[in-house]
Amino acid sequence: MANTSMEEFEALLNESLEMDTPDEGTVVKGKVIAIEAGQAIIDVGYKMEGRVELKEFAEPGEQPDVKVGDEVEVYLRAAENARGEAVISREMARREEAWDRLEKAYADDARVEGAIFGRVKGGFTVDLGGAVAFLPGSQVDVRPVRDAGPLMGLKQPFQILKMDRRRGNIVVSRRAILEESRAEQRAEVISNLTEGQAVDGVVKNITEYGAFVDLGGVDGLLHVTDMAWRRVNHPSEILSIGETVKVQVIKINKDTHRISLGMKQLQEDPWDLVGVKYPLNSVHQGRVTNITDYGAFVELEPGVEGLVHVSEMSWTKKNVHPGKIVSTSQEVDVMVLEIDGAKRRVSLGLKQTQRNPWEVFAETHPEGTVVEGEVKNITEFGLFIGLPGEIDGMVHLSDLSWDQRGEEAIQEYRKGDVVKAVVSEVDIEKERISLSIKALGGDKFADAVGGVKRGSIVTVTVTAIEDGGIEVEYEGMKSFIRRSDLSRDRSEQRPERFSVGDHVDVRVTNIDSKTRRLGLSIKAREIAEEKEAVEQFGSSDSGASLGDILGAALKRGE
């Protein structure tokens, strides 16, 4: 009987040991039986006690929350140490518990609560109720955070982005929570907005292309071109951060939740009255606001700008950059050339406000006027002479000299020479002025032969005797009479019968203005005289001889 009792007792003891003794490496329940020297003494069953530092019962930044009699879960690392006590950890128990909870939350894509408690390279550490997670710097907020101090130790929700229990890695995001709540807030605000609505907003940020305006939880973009009807070079000209402005909702993109705003739409459009205030060909004063390669923009009034194309800037400066003619902010007079209300464009002219210099020149310098100017340029076809009004006149090669070929005469001129010339033609439409240097002394040939016609009898002076004929002079103009024209009789066609200085009557057979030569003939004069005598005193058919006719003519002349 005693043996039986001993066997039963041993079986019961073994059963008790198997039931009550927990396995090492597991989480067990225990009871706080005492608190001393900054430690909690915990009974984990079967006469097993262990010690846990009180700080393991504290949340980050808080005091330990534990007292005698509390039931707590701890992690049994070892059943007995050198002092005969169980080696237990509250922190490891919390971690195991937390991992189970976090894995479920990760699977359900649910938020978890935690507190940022430390700073590490590239981000922060977060206590998720026992498990430590990494919060990258880029995931702290929707915008870069310069000072994370106010966020430290604050309990708040996080989203788990990634977790690996085997490696003990958890990555969380605070930004994802903010964006989600922000999106909900945006959706609510946007649902209350309508296109065309006027609302108040606060300027949050200013960029080169516009400003972001907070409409109460949602931002809208106020583009620089929608701030005012006039040209705005930079938004900071009319806006400042923190300023409250009234804007109109121009467009709402339901898919992207982007909102476009405008300020000028709440003001009167100056283009409504442009046609009335600026009729065609009227002249107005404006201010140069911008200069480009193709012209200059001139502001007629705030919100109304016109373009002076480079071709309409100057009568005389053709291939010059607009910046050489006008400067930014300069006040100028312009003429309205064209208005396109649909495209909101005004074409302006700068040169039209000044008289056409070719018209002025034509009025003040009629043909035949003598002008003086500097040789501006020498080309293969003539000289360009600078004239009053910043315009040029051209002397063609053929108008340089009466006596020399143009190619020879032009060699005598150099750039910068001051010369005189006669105005021969002004073509206002083609902006062309023709000048003549050779006409300065008048046209000697024209003057000499002014009263002479073909068939006229003139008296010339012999200036030279040559084998082929004689050189003669009439009113300062040289001509040559060939041997065959010296007499009707072949025997008298001898140049040597004349002497230099002789006066001879000759008949004009040709007047060539181009070569500036007179065609002269003694022979033609003699034939003409004979013909005239025959007509007056008889005919060749009457039988009278030439001698008889001439004799009669001579007697009559007596």
List the helices and strands and how they pair.
Layout: H1 2-20, E1 26-36, E2 39-45, E3 48-53, E4 71-78, E5 87-89, H2 90-108, E6 111-120, E7 123-127, E8 132-136, E9 155-164, E10 169-173, H3 175-191, E11 198-206, E12 210-214, E13 219-223, E14 244-253, E15 258-262, H4 274-277, E16 283-292, E17 295-301, E18 304-309, E19 331-340, E20 345-349, H5 357-364, E21 370-379, E22 382-387, E23 391-396, H6 406-409, E24 418-427, E25 432-436, H7 444-448, E26 457-466, E27 469-474, E28 477-482, E29 503-512, E30 517-521, H8 522-537, H9 546-557
Parallel strand pairs: 13-15, 18-20, 23-25
Antiparallel strand pairs: 1-2, 1-4, 2-3, 4-5, 6-7, 6-9, 7-8, 9-10, 11-12, 11-14, 12-13, 14-15, 16-17, 16-19, 17-18, 19-20, 21-22, 21-24, 22-23, 24-25, 26-27, 26-29, 27-28, 29-30
Helix pairs in contact: 8-9
Let me know the number of strands.
Answer: 30
| Separation, N- and C-terminal Cα atoms | 211 Å
Computed over alpha carbons, the radius of gyration is: 58 Å
Major sheet strand order: 3-2-1-4-5
Largest sheet: 5 strands, antiparallel
Q: Structural class per helix/strand content?
A: alpha+beta
- The share of residues in extended strands comes to 35-45%
